Amino acid sequence: MNEWSPAEAYQQQKADVLTLQMGNELYERLCTGSSFTGRVQELRKEVLAKTGVFLPPIRIRRGDDCQPKQYRILLRGQPAGEGSLFEDTSIEAAEDEERLLDHIRQICYLKLEQLLSFQGVVKWLEQAKSHAPELVQELLERGMTPGLLWSVLRILIRKRYPLHPFEELLEWMLEYFLYHPYNGYIPPQWTHRHPEDIAEFILKKRPRPSEQQEQAAGNVRYLQF
């Protein structure tokens, strides 16, 4: 008998960021020969366009403990929403499908801060580095860490502030570092940048649009979370 390894144990306890579980009947109906799975993944593009947050793939799986027509939405392995579809014959199938997509969309916006993972920020920073290497290098040399960036971005999301254009946010972070240099001879590792201070600096650079402006721009859903 093979020994149960730490790697196997870790993989078993690791949860996807966002998962859609469905009962067998619902899974067969929506995931066999339909465009539903593609439409679920398209939601990620919508969220990115409106908020600047790149979500990891939304896992779609059979839920062994789900009723045949039941679905459950999990956030990092914990229930975030559930419901049932195709139980009312007076409702068109397409309408039920749209209702599920709207439920997933709503959770994406409501739980956006939790959906922004540390590892996701690390990968997004790598993308920025490939497009603006000097900017990222300057920030890293001046004391920015992925953890600090992650904290700042989560604060901005909490204040309903979009994270794009991302390079512009990085430039404002650099401006913050230039305006607030380390004092005297104190080594950088002895001081700590406070994420709230950096976030407030960014918010003052570009105030969040008013509700009327966002509605005119079509970002109504983002405003309503």
UniProtKB/TrEMBL annotation:
Question: Does this UniProt record's set of keywords contain Ligase?
Answer: no
Gene3D superfamilies attached to this UniProt entry:
FHIPEP family, domain 1 (3.40.30.60), FHIPEP family, domain 3 (1.10.8.540)
Q: Which InterPro entries match?
A: FHIPEP_1, FHIPEP_3, T3SS_FHIPEP
Q: Which GO terms describe its cellular component?
A: plasma membrane
GO terms under biological process: protein secretion
What's its membrane topology?
Multi-pass membrane protein
Task: Give the highest taxon in the source lineage.
Answer: Bacteria
Which family does the record claim for this protein? Belongs to the FHIPEP (flagella/HR/invasion proteins export pore) family.
Q: What is this protein called?
A: Uncharacterized protein
**Species classification:** Bacteria, Bacillati, Bacillota, Bacilli, Bacillales
